[in-house]
Design goal:
It is a single chain. By secondary structure, this protein is α/β, with parallel strands linked by helices. It has a single domain, classed as Transcription Regulator spoIIAA (2-Layer Sandwich), CATH 3.30.750. About 35% of the residues lie in helices and about 25% in strands. The chain is built from three helices and seven strands; from the N terminus they run E-E-E-H-E-E-H-E-H-E. It has helices spanning about 25-35, 55-70, 80-90, and strands spanning about 1-5, 10-15, 15-20, 40-45, 50, 70-75, 95-100. Strands 1-2-4-6-7 form a five-stranded mixed sheet, with helices on one face. The radius of gyration is 12 Å and the shape is globular.
């Protein structure tokens, strides 16, 4: 996982899988990396080929963390497989999904 900052946005990228093996690490590292002025969290899932319930739980936990700070979470370019999981679980209604060229 890669973490970058731009203004008040923290961006997570290079996530190939989001599952029971790595979801708690992703959640904990993302929370630890949140600077006091970060109000937006972008999670790039363009390389993510698999997500399970633990991965979804990590995304929801980060969403709750950001809401507690008055911020938001955006899911950037989810792969078709991940998009399908988000739709089946109706999480596409919770997260802002952004598709960029």
């Amino acid at each position: 996982m890669k973490i970058e900052y731009q203004d008040k946005t923290m961006a997570l990228s290079e996530i190939t899988e989001l599952n029971a093996t790595n979801s708690s690490t992703l959640r904990d590292e993302a929370r630890a990396g949140l600077k006091h002025d970060v109000t937006s969290l972008d999670i790039d899932l363009s390389r993510t080929r698999f997500v399970d319930s633990s991965g979804l739980g990590a995304l929801i936990a980060l969403h709750k963390t950001m809401c507690g700070r008055g911020g938001s979470v955006r899911v950037i370019n989810p792969t078709p497989t991940v998009q399908q999981v988000l739709e089946l679980t109706r999480l596409h209604r919770v997260f802002e999904i952004v598709m960029t060229p």
